[in-house]
Amino acid sequence: MDKVYSDARAALAGAVKDGMTIMAGGFGLCGIPETLIEAIRDSGAKDLTFISNNAGVDGIGLGRLLETRQIRKMISSYVGENKLFAQQFLSGELELEFNPQGTLAERIRAGGAGIPAFYTKTGVGTLIAEGKEVREFNGEKYVMETGLFADISIVHAYRGDTEGNLVYRKTARNFNPMMATASRLTIAEVEHLVPAGEIDPDCIHTPGIFVKRMVHVPNPVKHIEQRTTRKRAEVAPAGAGEEV
C-alpha cells in the first residue's frame, strides 16, 4: 500500500466532507499541519468541528479556516491569540467547547486508546463541571470527561518513512502523537521523508500502523507566535579606543 501522495490536495481527496470532525495537531504555531489546513480550505468543506489545542492566529493555521467561515465548532484549550476567533465566538457564529489543557490532552489520548470516559479532579466545582457527572472516590470528587475521536486527524512530523512511521521534534510532540491515534483516518505531512527502515525503531513516536496517508512538505515556513527579542550588546568598532 503506497501511503505517499503527490500533494496535500491528493492526500485529502475523497476524505473531507461537510460536517466532519477533524483533529489538527500542533502547539501554538509549532508543529501545525499548515499545508493540509490550506488544502482543507481549498476543498470548500464547511460546518467543520475542529479539535485543536488552539485556533492558530489571524491569517495562519486554523485562522485561515475561520476567515472562510468553514469552522462551525472548536474543541480547544487556548484560543487567546486569535482576534477573529473572539469576534466569531462573541457574535454567536462559532461554537466553543472549552477544556483545561491537560483534560483536552487526556480526552484525545483516551479516544485513541478506546477509553470512552474517565474521571479527573480538574474542574470540579467550576463551570467546567456543569452538566457533567461528578462522582466521589476515596473521599474526593471527580468529574467525568469523555474521550475524543475524530473522522480525520491531520498531523505534522519532522521525519517520516514511506511506511508511515513518524518522528516529531520538540514542542510538536505535545499534541501530534496522541491525535495520530484518535481518528478513523490519519494524514501526515512530513518535512523529511526517508525510505522504510531508515528510522531507528527506538526513535519512532507514531508507528506507521496509525498513518494511512502522507505528503512530503520540505522546508515549511516556521512561524513564531510571539516574537520576543532583546537588544544586542553594542560592540565597539575595530580600532576604537586605541592610542595613535
What does this structure look like?
This protein is an alpha/beta fold. It has one domain (4-115, 147-216): Glutaconate Coenzyme A-transferase (3-Layer(aba) Sandwich). Helices cover 18% and strands 27% of the residues. β4 (71-76), α4 (83-90) and β5 (95-98) form a beta-alpha-beta unit. The protein starts with a strand and ends in a 28-residue tail after the last strand.
Strand and helix layout:
Blueprint: E1 4-5, H1 8-12, E2 21-24, H2 34-43, E3 48-51, H3 63-67, E4 71-76, H4 83-90, E5 95-98, H5 101-113, E6 117-120, E7 134-137, E8 140-146, E9 150-161, E10 166-167, H6 176-179, E11 183-194, E12 213-216
Parallel strand pairs: 1-12, 2-3, 2-9, 3-4, 4-5, 9-11, 11-12
Antiparallel strand pairs: 6-8, 7-8, 9-10
Main features:
244 residues; alpha/beta; Glutaconate Coenzyme A-transferase; nine-stranded mixed sheet; three-stranded antiparallel sheet
